[in-house]
Specification:
The structure is a homodimer.
Chain A (H helix, E strand, L loop, with lengths): L1 E5 L3 H12 L3 E6 L5 H10 L3 E5 H7 L2 E4 L6 H8 L1 H4 L3 E4 L4 E3 L5 E3 L7 H8 L4 E4 L6 H5 L10 E5 L2 H14 L6 E3 L6 H5 L2 H11 L4 E7 L2
Parallel strand pairs in A: 1-2, 1-4, 2-3, 4-5, 5-8, 9-10
Antiparallel strand pairs in A: 6-7, 8-9
Helix pairs in contact in A: 3-4
Chain lengths: 218, 218
């Protein structure tokens, strides 16, 4: 599959490298063509990796991944262009973290809105699926870093898009049964609001190789 | 131990019944002395149960549990009285859920404040510990309703108070190792912000007998 990744940070590059290793063709998109991280990535990515602007990456991809920070996601996706997103599955991996000058964490949006919904509203022809935003980047593409069975959560309005995203997650090593469907894209609120808890757990454990397993009565 | 419970809803009554069954003396406090739920509870609680006003319950307890809704917690605890709370461990079980007329969920406070912190600020001599607000009431007092190992989370500024609360949780059936200490009372933000996720999971499973197990690399 051809995949366009919006954002060249550690999340975007990690997903890009994994997807190339799985045999996909990946375009890593950045704001400007001379993005150093993207150029360094493409140098070691092999024949299946390329770089380009947000718009070029989105145009290239049959599947799009938003790997920008949640607070700049809309701006990056506007640069990618509504036409380049229309009809495509768009995986939103982002969280809207805002840190105050003293390091205090907030989410913006929070409560009655989410980045997932913002993207779906602004690009109604994209098929937005919130996914992967509840684990560390390394765990996203290598779930066995965390022992035992543990879960991912998806949200989106298009069942077929969610099935496609689940298939990608299976390629990453997540059993389909580990992926819990929380409902429409408005459920992205609930997983974005896990971030403060996730950061507290990281502080408690001193590392990021952990995840949620939802235990339940049958 | 003598325990004062603030709030006669299902959370307060369930905790009260469990604590009486464990041999504690419990005062179930309500806004008015003629609260029907409290009177019905005391009728079946046996010799170790009593009812009273918020103030009487708080005065009675060596340990206090706030089992009101998070949005009215401060008001109820003001009625209980700062003097009755001073020096005591105060377990805050609440979540600040606000539902709009259309049923849309918000938390208030959220992000940079929490009910746990509000209580600790308003009653600086109380030793507030946020606990138990991440599971259904039935699971609080009977963790084996959910199979396997799963976790609770505590937050508070007073290590000794957290140790005392952990001992109570052990009496409820939670292994001490299942109780993760997330830090100072400001960590209450992170567990209160789990509620939207918890409600989504309840929708997904169709019941409330579930809980979070945090899986991690060693």
């Amino acid at each position: 599959m051809r995949i366009g990744i919006i954002g060249t940070g550690v999340v975007g590059r990690t997903l890009a490298t994994k997807l190339v290793s799985l045999g996909h063709e990946v375009a890593l998109g950045s704001r400007t063509k001379d993005n150093a991280a993207a150029l360094a990535w493409v140098d070691q990515a092999g024949a299946k990796g390329r770089t380009g602007t947000f718009e070029e990456a989105a145009d290239f991809g049959e599947l799009i991944i938003n790997a920008t920070s949640g607070t700049v996601a809309l701006k990056a996706l506007r640069a990618a262009g509504a036409e380049q997103l229309a009809g495509k599955v768009l995986i939103d991996v982002s969280n809207p973290l805002v840190f105050s000058p003293t390091g205090e964490l907030s989410l913006d949006p929070v409560n009655t809105d989410s980045v997932g919904e913002q993207i779906q509203r602004e690009f109604p022809e994209a098929r937005v699926v919130k996914a992967l935003n509840t684990v560390n980047t390394a765990v996203m593409v290598e779930p066995r870093r965390v022992p035992g069975s543990h879960n991912l959560f998806i949200a989106g309005n298009d069942p077929e898009a969610k099935a496609q995203v689940t298939a990608v997650l299976e390629q990453f090593g997540w059993p389909a049964a580990a992926v819990l469907d929380l409902g429409g894209i408005e459920a992205a609120r609930s997983t974005e609001m896990l971030m403060p808890f996730w950061l507290r757990l990281m502080g408690h454990f001193g590392h990021a190789d952990f995840n949620y397993a939802i235990m339940k009565a049958e």
